[in-house]
């Protein structure tokens, strides 16, 4: 699919394609053409031109999402291209904007917004080398620290110290880039480039380091907070966090696995949970909440009822919800507003079929994403599922891997899914009949790949043929055995893998020591 380009855009491409000529000629370029030249340079991956455009940026703001998004001159959105060449040129250009004392333009730049960059699985840039969120955090922090060191050593124009540019960014902090980020945030007041964190993802950090980094970011600006995987945040730490820090703009909160475990609750814990619910209720902007792999049996109402704003996204996968929890969700005011819902890991047909379908009917007019992985949905439930999904005409994504469905049932379901006009992404399970007889669900990791691959390929082809015959080439169907693509996990998997090996080694050593003492 080719996107139409205006004559202006074609001319811009021609201008920046000769990097040497373009760089020499920038001084004669009208200010309002800089955004056009920036997008053309980004498309052609002209790193040197990008650097010089940013170094001499003549406008008050520099917003990556708007600059790379659909424009009248070129409709294609390039914000999902996290091209390493382009992004590094952008950020070094920003540093040199501060240092450049011979720029012909008066320095007007006040706000740089890097939050519009989207990390996706498939990259279309020629270099095929991406710069993810973690690497952008690392590079910007490094450039801010280097800039300060240079300014302190060099004889700079006094005006350089008066430059103050807010750099809005989604930070991603792990053990490996922690020190660098801390240094950049500590010296924010002295640095002309002022990191403003609007979204924070933290992984593989000790609690002490997590609390320190969150105190260094300005929580009044924070719109999204993700505390994931290897940050061992439990309920008492969450209460401490919410009591000590105010999040007036927070729209999205993700808590790590095992934050809550009601099975070992005392009366004090019940009070603590009530306090947490009240604190979450004070977040008047909160519309997205993810608390997967916690044990929350019978406590959903306590956590969610204080909320005054309806949730648009809720992830309570593998939270051991009971009938009371599901009944609360189905009857709550959140139900009519849910655009994304994840109930994976619950035996829906067995535990609360009618309550689940009531919830589904309430959110059907707005629901865009539904995830029902490992929910024990079997062949006998498919007709009921089709009935429940029929009103969900805005559904764009449906994920249901890990369910014991046969090839025949999947074909029946796919024939129906073709009728959902906005559906684009389907993640379906390996058919039950591709596994050896007697396989039990949920399937453990060791058995997950032990299926008849040739038979699976034949079934997958038949399912794709159903899409093709219904003229639904716009739908993508896949079976990601080990979960959907996650850009953040993909980027830091080496660090997280090393951490897991270290943890396993330490556990093994403790076990050996205890065993030896017993002996």
Automatic annotation (TrEMBL):
InterPro entries: LRR_dom_sf, LRRC14/PRAME. Keywords: Leucine-rich repeat, Repeat. The keyword Repeat applies. The keyword Repeat applies. It comes from the Eukaryota. One of its GO terms (cellular component) is cytoplasm. Belongs to the PRAME family. LRRC14 subfamily. This is Leucine-rich repeat-containing protein 14B.
